[in-house]
Amino acid sequence: MHYLILRTTREQRRRCTMLASRSFDGEVTERLLRRWGFRFARGSAGKAGGAAALRELARGIRKGGWAVVVADGPRPPPFRLRPGALFLAREGLIPLFAVRAWARPQLLIPRTWFRMAVPLPRCDIAVFSAGPIDPGGDEEVARLRVEGELEQLRRAADAHLYLGPPPHGGAHLPRLV
């Protein structure tokens, strides 16, 4: 998110709609980023509002805007692509890009299932992207293709910022630069 804030103008951010869950984490994200000019569509898989949130994202895209969707959504399992981003790409509304951003140092909030990370002041941020990714063909094959790209980006960001891959659920070892 720091990257989006620093690398976009306020006008570009006004054209961006972010998908945020109806969870507490989604509320925190929205409260922090609305003041920077981002718009939000709120909805969650398995809760009322998921389809409405996707329609709101589609409406913003059709008006010339762009969308940000966290690929693995607000619930476990991590690193498993949820259908929202793939749906929008398959409908031809957006090109699908995979992006991985990670920071060092950062505060990991342990009570969130995905260990929400909050970059600390003066941190190093690594941003890696791939795409556009073809969403065509069998839906399961397309999902695996996107998940594979996200995994490669995760490994690249980890290798860039840390000594060796950080163990999931464990502490990261900062690289001494």
Shape by Cα distribution: globular
Residues in helices, as a percent range: 25-40%
Q: How large is the share of residues in beta strands? A: 15-25%
Number of DSSP strand runs = 5
Counted up, domains total: 1
- Summing up helix and strand content along with how strands pair, one would put the structural category as alpha/beta
Total number of helical segments? 6
Please provide the ordered H/E string of secondary-structure elements. HHEHEHEHEEH
Low-confidence stretches: 167-177
Question: C-alpha Rg, in Å?
Answer: 16 Å
Average pLDDT over all residues: 77
Largest sheet composition? 3 strands, parallel
Distance between the termini: 24 Å
Strand order of the largest sheet: 2-1-3
Care to describe what's here?
37% of the residues lie in helices and 25% in strands. With 177 residues, the chain is α/β, with parallel strands linked by helices. The protein has one domain. A 3-stranded parallel beta sheet has the order 2-1-3, with helices on both faces. A hairpin with a 6-residue loop joins strand 4 (96-109) and strand 5 (116-133). The radius of gyration is 16 Å and the shape is globular. It starts with a helix and ends in a 16-residue tail after the last helix. Residues 167-177 have low confidence and may be disordered.
